[in-house]
């Protein structure tokens, strides 16, 4: 007699292309069958998803758990619990840890360190530090980094590898922002791997000049911050990156896009057939500068949240497929660290647990279809980073990762209930309709009705291909 590990019955399955009723049978941690027939055999865990939607497991491709490093803000145990609580089955951890993921040995140590803590599956980003680690790029590729990250426009502390949120030229013990020639070389090196070269995009030179000017006249409002760190800082970097991608052939990915003009430039590059992709985050979709008076310093992020017109263009990019996916840029800091002048406090906010609820709420509000949500949170990132069809895919043979969603469930985001260490969120009290109610990682329920039911089951995911350039609506 056959025995199934799991069945999810009576649910409505959502993929990027369609929505249909069927039952899912799981065997050996993989999807074994998707069918309306009743298959014979015992079932270990039988899940009734009547009235619910079953998505291919949602993922968050952009999180900073700061582990090892400043773990008083967050660690991987907490961030992956928060991920599961928020309906995510896979996360990609950013490489600016201490030590950073800058060579094969540190890839291995990070794999081991995070593997013992992970409640969901995880990929590891590799860092590009110019001449400091260029010889390690091929090894990092061979090890299975998910992609390469370059903090364009950031200075990095030379010993702790922490980002300098308030860098000034002349500071000691700092790896200063890299010049364009070195960026070009990084792109050439990553192009040889076929993997994605993803950038934080801000022009530090311009930021230095404009910020000094605003600081000299004592500017301290949110509009002053935006004057010192304007859309132009991102746009210049995106434009340079697109032209360098054209020259080097690298797959160029713009992280957390914040400016409408950047979206327009990327759309044009995509129309020309260049391998350019872009993601955004909920804070650029649901917040704008006008919200600062209400939300306060919690919403300070880099690149900063900009104006309504930027937000509208980013939504157009979601609608027409210019934007491949949505992720959180989860970057917690403590309450104390976030108290202070707008200039001096660090940038970043919690986001991992609120990513899926905010996007599902957008579905409820009619701003997004269920299919588009499946593309943005599962299918597209899996294809872009070369982990499909293992992840983000609803078909036999794929990992049995599911996010079960109750689109009728209403509630509010409660900061105190978040599972992260530092729980600072801009969305405290934000009403949500459409919540993940069950998170299943490779056939094991990790979260049910908001409660963690198993922990520590996550494992490393390595790309099986270099991935595809994902844009447009399929
Ligand atoms: O606001 C941000 N915080 N932007 C980043 O690029 C990094 C992040 C962090 O790690 O704090």
UniProtKB/TrEMBL annotation:
Sequence ranges assigned to domain Amidohydrolase-related in this UniProt record: 54-446
Pathway: Nitrogen metabolism; (S)-allantoin degradation; allantoate from (S)-allantoin: step 1/1
EC numbers, comma separated: 3.5.2.5
GO MF term (any one): allantoinase activity
Region span, Disordered: 455-474
Superkingdom of the source species: Bacteria
Keyword annotations: Hydrolase, Metal-binding, Zinc
Comp. bias regions, Polar residues: 461-474
Cofactor(s) required for function per UniProt: Zn(2+)
Pfam families per the UniProt record, alphabetical: Amidohydro_1
Subunit comment: Homotetramer.
Family stated for the protein in its record: Belongs to the metallo-dependent hydrolases superfamily. Allantoinase family.
NCBIfam families assigned: allantoinase (TIGR03178), pyrC_multi (TIGR00857)
UniProt-recorded name of the protein: allantoinase
Organism of this sequence: Salibacterium lacus
């Amino acid at each position: 007699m056959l025995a199934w590990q799991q069945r999810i019955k009576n649910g409505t399955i959502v993929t990027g292309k369609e929505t249909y009723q069927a039952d899912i049978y799981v065997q050996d941690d993989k999807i074994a069958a998707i069918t309306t027939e009743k298959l014979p055999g015992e079932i270990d865990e039988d899940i009734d998803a009547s009235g619910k939607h079953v998505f291919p497991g949602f993922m968050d491709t952009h999180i900073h758990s700061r582990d090892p490093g400043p773990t008083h803000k967050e660690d991987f145990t907490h961030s992956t619990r928060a991920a599961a609580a928020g309906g995510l089955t896979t996360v990609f951890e950013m490489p600016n840890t201490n030590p950073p993921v800058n060579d094969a040995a540190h890839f291995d140590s990070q794999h081991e360190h995070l593997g013992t803590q992970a409640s969901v599956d995880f990929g590891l980003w590799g860092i590009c530090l110019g001449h400091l680690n260029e010889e390690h790029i091929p090894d990092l590729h061979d090890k299975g980094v998910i992609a390469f990250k370059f903090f364009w426009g950031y200075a990095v502390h030379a010993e702790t590898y922490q980002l300098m949120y308030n860098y000034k030229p002349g500071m000691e013990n700092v790896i200063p922002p890299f010049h364009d020639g070195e960026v070009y070389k990084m792109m050439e090196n990553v192009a040889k791997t076929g993997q994605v070269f993803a950038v934080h995009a801000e022009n530090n030179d311009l930021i230095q000049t404009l910020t000094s000017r605003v600081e000299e006249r004592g500017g301290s409002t949110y509009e002053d911050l935006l004057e010192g760190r304007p859309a132009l800082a991102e746009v210049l970097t995106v434009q340079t990156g697109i032209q360098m991608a054209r020259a080097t052939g690298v797959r160029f990915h713009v992280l957390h896009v914040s400016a409408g003009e950047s979206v327009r430039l990327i759309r044009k590059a995509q129309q020309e057939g260049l391998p350019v992709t872009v993601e955004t985050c909920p804070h650029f979709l649901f917040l704008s500068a006008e919200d600062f008076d209400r939300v306060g310093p919690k919403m300070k992020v880099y690149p900063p949240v900009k104006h309504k017109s930027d937000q509208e263009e980013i939504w157009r990019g979601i609608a027409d497929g210019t934007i491949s996916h949505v992720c959180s840029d989860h970057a917690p800091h403590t309450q104390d660290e976030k108290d202070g002048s707008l200039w001096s406090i660090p940038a970043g906010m919690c986001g991992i647990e609120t990513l899926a609820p905010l996007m599902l709420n957008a579905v409820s509000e009619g701003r997004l279809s269920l299919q588009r949500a499946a593309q943005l949170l599962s299918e597209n990132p899996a294809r872009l980073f070369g982990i499909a069809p293992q992840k983000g895919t609803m078909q036999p043979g794929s990992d049995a990762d599911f996010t079960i969603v109750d689109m009728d469930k209403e509630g509010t985001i409660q900061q105190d209930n978040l599972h992260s260490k530092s729980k600072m969120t801009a969305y405290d009290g934000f009403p949500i309709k459409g919540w993940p109610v069950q998170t299943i990682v490779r056939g094991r329920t990790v979260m049910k009705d908001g409660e963690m039911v198993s922990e520590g089951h996550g494992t490393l995911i390595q790309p099986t291909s270099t991935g595809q350039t994902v844009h447009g609506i399929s």
